Amino acid sequence: MIEEPPLLTIRRAFPRPTAAQVAAFQDVPTGFVCDALGGQGAMNTVIRPIGGLEREVHAAGPALVADNGPAEILATVAAVHFAQPGDVIVAATHGGRNVAAAGDNLCAMMRNKGCVAFVTDGELRDYKGLMEVGLPAWCAGLNPNSPFSKGPGRVGFGATVAGRHVESGDMIVADRDGVVVVPFTRIDAVIARLEQITRLEAEAEEKVRSGYCDFPAIEAMIADGSAIVID
């Protein structure tokens, strides 16, 4: 007979980014971070910021992954207990829907613990209370149904959340455009690329403001025959 797993498995010691590494991502647009990752890195767009796109929101910090089953919350509760200031709790629900992955009180406890954001591929509830709590949160929608806390769950490991694998200790950068995961082993390389990307974006924006609207590369493709024009 297969043994039942423990209700909770918790890993407290995992590599974490340094304070300087975390600081390098503050107020950096997620689009810049994706560019530094080669054009990828974002979770599926089912994940949206609570409060809508009109609300200015940005968060950056190390992931603390709470791997729950569908309709479960025990791992998230344990993650709050073990969270460190600056953490982003990332709660996996493995595609579970029609039940809340957290509500205003649990998000308020995350805020009290010093967490900077909450990300889940599940749904949230208590919208009015969440707005009062003010913790930046990204989720798959709203639903008032209650979750269970029976386990099993895992904290401090990894999980796939909205199509993107996240390991505890990875950098999470999130804004109104979405949630991006920077693998721990690539943090320094991404930081090194961000300076160049920020400069190139500023140059491009200045050209557009000055009236730029043509693409010489398209004319070059027509000239060398790799593109044809049919009138």
From TrEMBL:
Mg(2+) binds at residue 126. Keywords: Lyase, Magnesium, Metal-binding. Its EC number is 4.1.3.17. Its cofactor is Mg(2+); a divalent metal cation. It holds the Pfam family RraA-like. Signal peptide: none annotated. SUPFAM superfamilies: RraA-like (SSF89562). Substrate binds at residues 103-106, 125. PANTHER family: 4-HYDROXY-4-METHYL-2-OXOGLUTARATE ALDOLASE 3-RELATED. This is Putative 4-hydroxy-4-methyl-2-oxoglutarate aldolase.
